[in-house]
Amino acid sequence: MTFPESATLAGQFLIAMPNLDDPSFNRGVTLVCQHNEEGALGLLINRQSEYSLADILEQMQLEYQAPELADVPVLIGGPLQQERGFVLHEEPGYWEASYRVNQTWSVTTSRDILVAIAAGQGPAKALLVLGYAGWDAGQLEQELKDNAWLTAEASHQVVFDTPLDRRWTAAADLVGVDVNRLTAYPGHA
């Protein structure tokens, strides 16, 4: 399958179908951050790590005043480079190392955004994730043909306001699919 240059899944959710049994992605929701002829990169938004935002700030020797940061979960963004941090947010901001996914979403990898978050001056809403998901050229397109994923326009509400354990079903609801009623095997008409 050739992928037209103008077509991209950046800014879309990849919603794991029930037949996707890879433990990294089973019942996962991934926000695609980059997608072109060379491949794709995304961040899972519904896998909690063992860390809190306070743990990360303390590790980076950043002081913070807001005690609620201790309860902000850090997510596992995917199976690749889990020592690498990404901040997913909507406002573009003026950070040292940000990548604009589309008109809505940005991903920042520089320390300055964490300094701002610790000082209470960061984006209004943000997710900190460790690691990412990646696909080689044509790999994601093949997985879509193999019925491994549903796609939907990424939603602020699902990313920031929906509890982690409900994000998979909430993302599928965006396209009118009840994933709990789908079988784990493909059918043929």
What's the short version?
The protein has 189 residues and is α+β, with helices and mostly antiparallel strands. It has helices at residues 53-59, 111-118, 139-145, 156-161, 167-173, and strands at residues 12-16, 29-36, 39-44, 48-52, 73-76, 80-89, 98-100, 106-108, 126-136, 149-153.
The H/E string reads EEEEHEEEEHEHEHH
Distance between the termini: 21 Å
Helix/strand-derived category reads alpha+beta
Q: Give a short account of the largest sheet.
A: 10 strands, mixed
| Strands, count | 10
Our count of helices gives 5
Oligomer: single chain
Rg on CA atoms, Å: 17 Å
Average of the residue pLDDT scores: 91
Strand content: 25-35%
Basic shape:
globular
Please bin the fraction of helical residues: 10-25%
Task: Give start-end ranges of low-pLDDT stretches.
Answer: 1-6
Features:
189 residues; alpha+beta; 10-stranded mixed beta sheet; 5 helices; 32% strand; globular; disordered N terminus
Give an overview in words.
The chain is α+β, with helices and mostly antiparallel strands and 189 residues long. It starts with 11 loop residues before the first strand and ends in a 16-residue tail after the last helix. The radius of gyration is 17 Å and the shape is globular. The protein has five helices and ten strands, in the order ββββαββββαβαβαα. Helix content is 19%, strand content 32%. It has helices spanning 53-59, 111-118, 139-145, 156-161, 167-173, and strands at 12-16, 29-36, 39-44, 48-52, 73-76, 80-89, 98-100, 106-108, 126-136, 149-153. The model is unreliable at 1-6 (pLDDT under 50). Strands 1, 2, 3, 4, 5, 6, 7, 8, 9 and 10 form a ten-stranded mixed sheet that branches.
